[in-house]
Specification:
Blueprint: E1 8-12, H1 19-27, E2 31-34, E3 38-42, H2 48-54, E4 60-63, H3 66-78, E5 89-92, H4 95-103, H5 117-123, H6 125-128, E6 134-139, H7 145-149, E7 155-164, H8 169-178, E8 181-186, H9 189-198, H10 200-203, E9 209-212, H11 215-223, H12 237-246
Parallel strand pairs: 1-2, 1-8, 4-5, 4-6, 6-7, 8-9
Antiparallel strand pairs: 3-7
Helix pairs in contact: 3-4, 9-11
C-alpha cells in the first residue's frame, strides 16, 4: 500500500523537540532527518528572582513560543517560586505554546485565531481590558510586533536567546545531495539565515523543496530569492506535514 510520504526525505531544522513529528513522518512512509540549525540558550540575570516576583503585578503574561514557556518555567523551578502568587491572566500564541503552559499548571485565557504576532495585536485588545499591565516573556530574536502593534505599552523580559548550530550543516548538505526528494522544513527566520550562510554555498537553494511555518519565516526564505513550495494556513508542524503528504504545493 502506497504511503503519502514514501520516497520523501524530510529535514527538520528547528530546535523544538520533534519526536512526535518524526514518528508521524515515518508512519506515513517518509524518512525524517533531525538537523537543528538553531539552539536556544537561557538568559540568566542576577535579578531573575525579583523579575519573577514582579510578575504578580501584571494583568497579563504573554507567551509567543514554547521556548519562552520552557525557560520561564526553568526560572520558576530554580527559584522555587510559588505559582499561587500569580493572579494575572495568560495569553499564548499557538496551540503548542498553550498546551505547554497548561501542562505546567497555567490557565490560558486568550489565544489568537491565527498563530501569529500580527493577528495577536489585532485581536488581543478586545479582551485585554483598558490600559492593561502586560509582560511579554520573549526570546532575544523576537520581533517588536507586539511592542509596536498594541495600542498600549507592554514590558518585556528576555528569558532565552537563539544561537546558530553549525554542527548540522554537514548532515544537511550530505542528506540533500543523496536524497531523491529532499524537503527542508523551516520554522524560524534564524534557521533560514543559518542555512543560507553555511549550506547554500555548498548546495544552493534549489536542490530541495522548501516548507515554511509562518509568514515571517516564508518572507525570510523569499528574501534570498528562493521559492517556498509548502506553506499551510495553520502555522503548525503538523499542518506542514499534512500539506506535504497531500501534495498541496504553492
Amino acid at each position: 500500500m502506497h504511503k503519502p510520504l514514501e520516497g520523501k526525505t524530510i529535514l527538520l531544522t528547528g530546535s523544538k523537540k520533534t519526536q512526535s513529528i518524526v514518528d508521524t513522518i515515518v508512519q506515513q512512509g517518509g524518512e525524517a532527518v533531525v538537523c537543528p540549525l538553531i539552539r536556544t540558550v537561557e538568559v540568566t540575570e542576577a535579578d531573575d528572582y525579583e523579575r519573577l516576583a514582579s510578575c504578580k503585578h501584571y494583568d497579563w503574561l504573554i507567551f509567543t513560543s514554547q521556548n519562552g514557556v520552557e525557560f520561564f518555567w526553568k526560572k520558576i523551578e530554580r527559584h522555587q517560586f510559588n505559582l499561587s502568587q500569580l493572579s494575572g491572566k495568560i495569553a499564548a500564541v499557538g496551540e503548542k505554546t498553550a498546551a505547554l503552559l497548561e501542562r505546567y499548571g497555567f490557565t490560558v485565557h486568550f489565544m489568537p485565531s491565527i498563530f501569529s504576532a500580527d493577528t495577536f495585536v489585532k485581536e488581543f485588545p478586545s479582551v485585554s481590558g483598558e490600559s492593561p499591565k502586560c509582560l511579554f516573556i520573549r526570546g532575544g530574536l523576537a520581533k517588536d510586533t507586539l511592542k509596536k502593534g498594541l495600542p498600549f505599552p507592554i514590558d518585556e523580559w528576555t528569558v532565552y536567546t537563539t544561537v546558530e548550530n553549525k554542527e548540522s550543516i554537514d548532515k544537511i548538505v550530505e542528506t540533500v545531495r543523496n536524497s531523491r526528494q529532499p524537503i527542508l522544513i523551516f520554522a524560524s527566520p534564524s534557521a533560514v539565515d543559518c542555512f543560507h550562510k553555511y549550506a547554500v554555498p555548498e548546495i544552493g537553494w534549489n536542490q530541495a523543496k522548501i516548507a515554511c511555518i509562518g509568514h515571517i519565516t516564508k518572507g525570510a526564505v523569499e528574501k534570498y530569492g528562493a521559492h517556498v513550495t509548502y506553506f499551510p494556513q495553520k502555522y503548525t508542524m503538523q499542518s506542514v506535514i499534512e500539506a506535504i503528504a497531500k501534495g498541496e504545493e504553492m
